[in-house]
Amino acid sequence: MKKRPLGSTGIDVAPIGLGAAQLGSSEYDHSKEIVFKALDMGVNYFDTAQGYWDSEVKLGKALKGERENVIVSSKTGGKTKEEAAAHIDESLQKLQTDYIDNYHLHALSDLDDVDVRLGGPLEALIEAREAGKIRNIGITGHTFPSVLVAALKRFDFDTFLVPLNIVEREPLAELIPLAIEKNVGITIMKPVATGLLPAPLALKWLMNQNIAVAVPGSTTVAEMEQNASIGALDEYTLTADEESEVASWALQLATDRCRICMECLPCPSDITIPSTLGTDVLYDHYRTMGPVNFSKFPWEPSRVEADLQGRESLINKINDHDACDSCMQCESRCPYGLPIVSMLRTMVPKMEDMLDIWSKESAKV
């Protein structure tokens, strides 16, 4: 893959990286093979986070011996200086490294959160950089790009991570032009809209944008190979048929893709709408794999165990018409006009099947 400069960091990155959130779902031997395939395909950018289950541990083990050949990114959701500093030290230990290339303030949610995170937590990152624990400081956000725009105007961040894909194009309006002006490294998450978009088309479209690297997740070696092969293309120009497909997908998912903007909250029934519709990694596994492959997947037992109770509670809240009484407050707030209630209830049979599959697999042990 032909490398691109990561802003002013002095780092050159292959345009397709690996988002490690999904590595926390599978047993180590399975996740290791995905990382190995990434390395074989020329991937040199690996994005993880303190909050991605045990992905830092698995990534650290799999990258042992390759540290000087790769770029590692991690994140803290800490709200205080002490918490952020502790997360950095934990990440260093889990990743088995003396330094982390890019460390981010994770998931800035609104302008109030910007005020909080650009206080003590940012101080912790600056001190860590001075101590050589991290090399570059970044931010990430799932909500409106204006939140990251505000942060970039207040501090000279080195990198940022934001969703961008065929459906979610909002960063192209102001955020990315500002980043280009300030020479900030642009890294992209949700490039295939958590599996809703066909990866080859979505990634090829993204390669034509002013970005440094996209970090799609992979649940299998085949997915990793497919993703990296797009980055290795000699030509990214879309054909007329591909342009037509892009337009079709953008229209089709315009009112069927949660942008995680948080505007639907608070929910009177305490349903975590954005994370359920927009970032539910295990549900995305089921939807992408189908029930047969889902049942055969080498699940990390502790990951499944941790998910079970919360998923049962979520299903009960959605099914409880006395609790979720279709008050439509969420839908009236959604700036994208999503049919949120029906989307949530459509997920329930699949989530119930997930629980049934896990229950049967547990009974075999």
Description of the structure:
The chain is an alpha/beta fold and 365 residues long. The protein folds into 2 domains: 4-242, NADP-dependent oxidoreductase domain (TIM Barrel, Alpha-Beta Barrel); 273-364, no CATH class. Helices cover 48% and strands 11% of the residues. The chain contains 15 helices and 10 strands. The chain has helices spanning 28-40, 55-62, 81-95, 111-117, 120-130, 145-154, 175-182, 199-207, 221-231, 240-253, 273-278, 281-296, 301-319, 329-333, 340-364; strands spanning 4-5, 12-13, 18-19, 45-47, 71-76, 100-105, 134-140, 159-163, 185-189, 213-214. Strands 3-4-5-6-7-8-9-10 form an 8-stranded parallel sheet. A two-stranded antiparallel sheet has the order 1-2. Helix 2 (55-62) runs parallel beside helix 3 (81-95) and helix 8 packs parallel to helix 9. The termini are far apart.
Summarize the entry for a quick read.
With 365 residues, the protein is α/β, with parallel strands linked by helices. It has helices spanning 28-40, 55-62, 81-95, 111-117, 120-130, 145-154, 175-182, 199-207, 221-231, 240-253, 273-278, 281-296, 301-319, 329-333, 340-364, and strands spanning 4-5, 12-13, 18-19, 45-47, 71-76, 100-105, 134-140, 159-163, 185-189, 213-214.
